[in-house]
Write a structure and sequence with these properties.
single chain; 118 residues; mainly alpha; 2 domains; 3-stranded antiparallel sheet; 3 strands; elongated
Length: 118
């Protein structure tokens, strides 16, 4: 039996964004700014960020990270998913999940990044 951490979303950035988008936007992308979802397009191009959409109603770009704990983080989405999976496996008790323990098991940069709470 393969580990859950062998799934593509934990190793591929585009797959990680797709997985989060499917959970947060089950009926398709919704603009963070105007909350519209009718006139939204996925941006494509060699220099376009992964997961970038444009709302043609308010003409602003947005991603699935906006309004979440991921928004101000420079840590890759796939690393966040690995850390969340590790936290879920350890249990939800604060004693079982601390920034330093997650930082030691996943390369999130620092224990402060691993301790982010909003």
């Amino acid at each position: 039996m393969a580990s859950i951490l062998s799934e593509d979303r934990f190793h591929n950035e585009e797959a990680a964004y797709t997985w989060v988008e499917e959970r947060l936007w089950p009926n398709g992308p919704v603009c963070f700014h105007c909350k519209g979802g009718e006139r939204v397009g996925k941006m494509a191009g060699k220099t376009t960020r992964i997961g970038l959409y444009k709302c043609y109603a308010c003409r602003k770009p947005f991603t699935v990270k906006m309004g979440t704990v991921f928004e101000a983080s420079h840590v890759a989405m796939r690393m966040w998913l690995q850390a969340i999976c590790a936290a879920a496996r350890r249990g939800s008790a604060p004693a079982n999940f601390s920034g330093p323990s997650v930082s030691a098991s996943r390369p999130l940069g620092s224990w402060r990044t691993a301790s982010v709470r909003r």
